[in-house]
Every structure is written in structure tokens, then in C-alpha cells.
Specification:
By secondary structure, the protein is an alpha+beta fold. The chain is built from 19 helices and 18 strands. It folds into 3 domains: about 120 residues, D-Maltodextrin-Binding Protein, domain 2 (3-Layer(aba) Sandwich), CATH 3.40.190; about 170 residues, Dipeptide-binding Protein, Domain 1 (Dipeptide-binding Protein, domain 1, Alpha-Beta Complex), CATH 3.90.76; about 190 residues, Dipeptide-binding Protein, Domain 3 (Dipeptide-binding Protein, domain 3, Roll).
Length: about 550
């Protein structure tokens, strides 16, 4: 998806501090006597299935019920939480990961969590009939994973004949699953004991840990009527839940899109000071974040930060800021000559529009990488400065097409329109089109767009293979550079930060020289809260990792 997924984040140090503060008292410690915390969110649809939930509101609810083994920490890294993930190198490029969960975890019905619940997560994602948000899991280079997915030990010799045809592969899978499945095990996933399993990757990949950082779900609950090839049976479960997180689902109102949750007595991070948590859909309330907070409909809420948004809360409302989890860039297709691309990027001068829109609540990027990563280069300046070659631009191109998703009132459209005006003096015509998300994606993927503006999620690691490698699935500029291909592969295989940081810096310089992406800005997100309900000491510091909804049990 090209659309943004937004969240505010909290550092590990903050979490540790809040644990200590929250454990000192069973009441609100000066922040009022409310036993219910009301959270403002957006797009609650009522799909509370951990395998299929997609909307921002549903996902926030899911976090309270179904935690992962590791959580996000400083510099966007993963840190052990309900368990650990370690690794050791084996012969060749193979890496064996050991996944361990705590031995004191329990679901909200009191049943103990075991490693079988984690393994069930892996196996369900590897079912070819699964079509949820993690359906790309089978692409991981785990030994035996694709044999299981395709249900054929000899799949490699068969799908190679299809030359990448999606329809032929889909028919092949359907046929394999039609009369019962044959491959029942993923050879690279081994159960060691009740709390440990190993996962064997055939190659090194810095994304491996995030890929096997399982969401802990109960096999007995979701797998009761499931067999391989029948993922639809699990998909039907949308309102019943059972997890080991800090809260469990008590009620959901379809009328006003409100979720009521109760503290899970079996959770390891109990007792939660707020025994109940209510998630309320601001759209259903018919109020923006500031009005919902001031009216008492919610006690805490976050929203994209702009001067207007921040000022709307007023000086009496406490607010904190953090970076968004995506950044926005201008892209130019390699169908446009490289020298023309460089000249065009040197002519881009619409930064005043960004400032007017966000009033300083953003970071002006100089390289195409989220500032949330520790690999983001420090102390660098804008890459493109000279516009001296503008006079020769029309000798390389005369007309270009530019696209953005949204309306003509959107910032992306205004940026492209201003860009078109700036290059028109050099006898180059840029036709700007604002369209729906689906139309935008089609124009970019089909090569009809020469120029476009969109956001890029920062992902789990600094890996940019999908965007810049010749074979990358999101390489819509059609960039193909042997040096860049080599670097993206090296970064995927890099283990230590020193090597990874140096390689990432080198990659970003080459990408800038290729002139396919001009990074523009990364927004901030504001969180506002009622100090009569939430003690500000429990929101000591907001940085860029995890959301405040991840630490609800520790707020007081």
C-alpha cells in the first residue's frame, strides 16, 4: 500500500521508567480517580482478527490483546519483551534463529502459552490460502517454507516454467490444495521444548528477525477448526478474541464504533491502573482530536502534527511530539534521461509550501531513509543545488506526466503544480494529475507516470532492496544499477551496525546520484492528553518508537 500508516512512539527507557512508576500504586497517583482510559483513534471497523486486521483503529485494539515476542525500541530496533530471538551462523550462509518465549505467559482464560502457539503463527502465514496482511511470509528463505506453501517438494522445477505468470502459479497452487495437502511440515522450523523453537534460514537477511517476531495467538482457539488449505475458517473469526496482552475485548458497539476492553488479570504486566480501556473512533464521534479531548469523549489522542492541529488543543492541554513512521519523496522514472532527472531535481524549490502546510512540524530530509533509523546519515546537506543546466533541459525532455493520489487541494498536488510552473520557463511541460489511490498506483506501476510524489513506510530495517534493486518489488522507477544491486544485497547480509551503517550511507549516495528519488520531508505526530485523568509523569518523554497505546497498563 502506498498510503500512510501513522503512529507515535515511545522509547524503551520510557517504558522502563513507567513500569517502575506504575507498580508503585494501584490508583491514579494524583491524576484523578478515573478507572477508565478513553483513547481516540480512527477507522475502527470491528475486525479484531490478528491475522487479518488492517485498519489503524483495529490494529491499535489488536496490540492490547496480541503482543509480539519483541517490541520496537530505540533507533527502531527490536528488543526482547515476551521472549527472545537469537541467532548463530551455520555452514555456508545459513543462519539458525532460536525463538524463546517466557514460561509464565497465559492467555486471558488462564491457559498457558507455549511455543506451539508461536509455531502455529508461522504455519498459518505459510498457508497459500491465507490472504491477510502477512501473506508475503512465504517469500522468506526459511528451509522448507516454499515447499509447504506450494504443497510440492519439487515446486522449484515447476514454477520456473511459468515465467512469473501469476495466473499460472495460482492455478498450480489451487490444484495442489484441491485434493488434500501433501507437505505437512516446514523442515526449517523445529520445536525444541514447550518454550523454544528454531527457525533455519538458508541465507542471511537483516529482515529475518522482524519476520519471525511472531504475534502470540492461541493455537487452540484459532486452530480448532482449521487445517491447511482452509484459512477462510480462521478469517471468519472477527469479534471473538483470546490473547495474552494487557487487555481483553469486552464489547464492541457497531453503532458508534467504540471498543471496550478490560484488564487481563493473567497478563505479566499487570496490574493495569486503568482497569478498562475504551477505544473511540473520532470519525464516528463526528469530532476532530481537539474537540473530542476537550469534550471529555477521549482522554488521550494523537494526530498528524501541523501548526493548526497543535494550536487547536490550546495552551492548557499537554502535548508531546514524535516522528511519523513514513517519509515523503518525489520520484522520477528512469524513462526520463538521468541528466534530465538531475536537472529537474536541482530545479525543485517548493519547500516553502511544505513549511506553510506543517509550520515546522516536520524534518526536511536530505537522503531517502526514515530519520527513525540510526543508519540515517548525520550532518549532510541537500544533494542537488545547481540549476545552471536548466537552459538545456528542453534538449532532453519536452513533456512529462506527474501524478499524485488525492485531490487538487492536497499538498502533493500543490508541490507538483509549483514544480511544473518552475520548469515551464525552460520550455518543458509537466501535466499534473490528481487521482484516486488505485488510479495513482496503476499509473506508477504501469509506467505512465514520469514523476510522482508519495510516502514510503520506514519498514522494520534500513533494508531498501525492494525499492532500489533491479529485481525489487517496489522499484517503480525501474532503476537498474549493478553497483546499487550489489550494495542492497550486502546490506541485507550485514550483521553489525558499523558495516551496515557504512553500506547504507554509500547506497544512499548512489541513489541520489541516480536521481530517481528526491526525499522531501518526514512529518511529526502530536499526542495530547487530559492531565486530570493521565499523570504527565507517565508520559515522561516521547521519541520515535512504539505508540503510547503499547504501554496503556503503565499509564496512571
Amino acid at each position: 500500500m502506498l498510503n500512510r500508516i501513522l503512529r507515535v512512539s515511545i522509547s524503551l527507557a520510557l517504558v522502563c521508567a513507567i513500569v517502575l512508576l506504575g507498580s508503585c500504586s494501584g490508583k491514579n497517583s494524583g491524576a484523578g480517580s478515573a478507572s477508565v482510559i478513553k483513547i481516540g483513534t480512527q477507522d475502527i471497523t470491528g475486525n479484531f482478527n490478528p491475522f487479518y486486521a488492517e485498519s489503524a483503529g483495529d490494529i491499535e485494539v489488536m496490540k492490547q490483546i496480541y503482543p509480539s515476542i519483541q517490541r520496537r525500541g530505540p533507533d527502531n530496533t527490536l528488543i526482547n519483551d515476551l521472549g527472545s530471538i537469537s541467532y548463530e551462523y551455520e555452514e555456508g550462509d545459513r543462519v539458525k534463529y532460536t525463538v524463546t518465549i517466557r514460561d509464565d505467559l497465559a492467555f486471558s482464560d488462564g491457559t498457558r502459552v507455549t511455543i506451539d502457539d508461536v509455531i502455529f503463527w508461522y504455519y498459518f502465514l505459510a498457508d497459500a490460502t491465507y490472504d491477510g496482511v502477512y501473506s508475503g511470509f512465504y517469500l522468506n528463505d526459511i528451509e522448507g517454507l516454499r515447499e509447504y506453501y506450494f504443497d510440492d517438494e519439487n515446486y522449484a522445477s515447476v514454477i520456473g516454467n511459468f515465467a512469473g505468470s501469476d495466473s499460472h502459479i495460482a492455478s498450480y497452487i489451487k490444484k495442489n490444495y484441491a485434493n488434500g495437502t501433501d507437505v505437512t511440515e516446514i523442515s526449517g522450523i523445529k520445536r525444541v521444548d514447550d518454550y523454544t523453537c528454531t527457525v533455519l534460514f538458508n541465507s542471511r537477511n537483516i529482515n529475518a528477525v522482524s519476520q519471525i517476531n511472531a504475534v502470540i495467538v492461541p493455537k487452540a482457539f484459532y486452530g480448532a477448526n482449521y487445517v491447511k488449505g482452509e484459512a477462510a475458517k480462521v478469517k471468519e473469526i472477527t469479534s471473538d478474541t483470546l490473547g495474552c496482552g494487557p487487555y481483553y475485548l469486552s464489547a464492541y458497539s457497531e453503532k458508534d464504533h467504540t471498543v471496550t476492553m478490560v484488564a487481563n488479570d493473567y497478563a505479566i504486566n499487570k496490574p493495569a491502573v486503568f482497569q478498562k480501556a475504551e477505544f473511540k473512533d473520532l470519525k464516528a464521534l463526528g469530532k476532530d482530536a481537539a474537540k473530542a479531548l476537550k469534550s471529555g469523549d477521549v482522554n488521550i489522542v494523537s494526530a498528524p502534527a501541523t501548526g493548526e492541529t497543535v494550536s487547536s488543543f490550546g495552551s492548557s492541554v499537554k502535548t508531546v511530539l514524535g516522528n511519523e513512521t513514513d517519509y515523503t519523496s518525489l520520484f522520477i522514472s528512469t524513462a526520463v534521461p538521468q541528466e534530465a532527472r538531475k536537472t529537474l531535481m536541482g530545479l525543485f524549490a517548493s519547500y516553502d509550501l511544505i513549511e506553510n502546510e506543517y509550520s515546522g512540524y516536520y524534518t526536511r530530509l536530505v537522503r531517502p531513509l526514515s530519520v527513525r533509523f540510526e543508519e540515517y546519515p548525520a550532518g549532510l546537506e541537500q544533494y542537488y543545488k545547481s540549476t545552471l543546466k536548466g537552459a538545456f533541459l528542453s534538449t532532453m525532455v519536452t513533456s512529462l506526466s506527474a501524478y499524485c493520489a488525492g485531490t487538487k487541494d492536497s499538498l502533493d498536488y500543490k508541490l507538483l503544480e509549483k514544480f511544473a510552473q518552475d520548469v515551464a520557463q525552460y520550455n518543458v511541460n509537466i501535466k499534473v494529475t490528481a487521482c484516486s489511490e488505485s488510479e495513482f498506483e496503476a499509473a506508477v506501476k504501469e509506467g505512465r507516470a514520469d514523476i510522482w510524489i508519495t510516502s514510503t513506510p520506514d519498514g522494520d530495517t534500513c533494508d531498501k532492496y525492494d525499492y532500489y534493486n533491479t529485481l525489487g518489488s517496489k522499484n517503480f522507477t525501474r532503476l537498474s544499477d549493478p553497483g546499487i544491486d550489489e550494495l542492497t544485497l550486502k546490506i541485507r547480509r550485514a550483521t553489525g551496525f558499523t558495516d551496515r551503517g557504512a553500506l547504507t550511507g554509500e547506497l544512499l549516495e548512489k541513489v541520489m546520484d541516480s536521481a530517481v528519488e528526491l526525499p522531501l520531508y518526514q512529518l511529526q505526530r502530536v499526542t495530547a492528553y487530559d492531565t486530570g485523568v493521565i499523570n504527565e509523569k507517565s508520559l515522561i518523554d516521547v521519541s520515535e518508537y512504539d505508540g503510547y497505546t503499547d504501554i496503556l497498563p503503565y499509564l496512571y
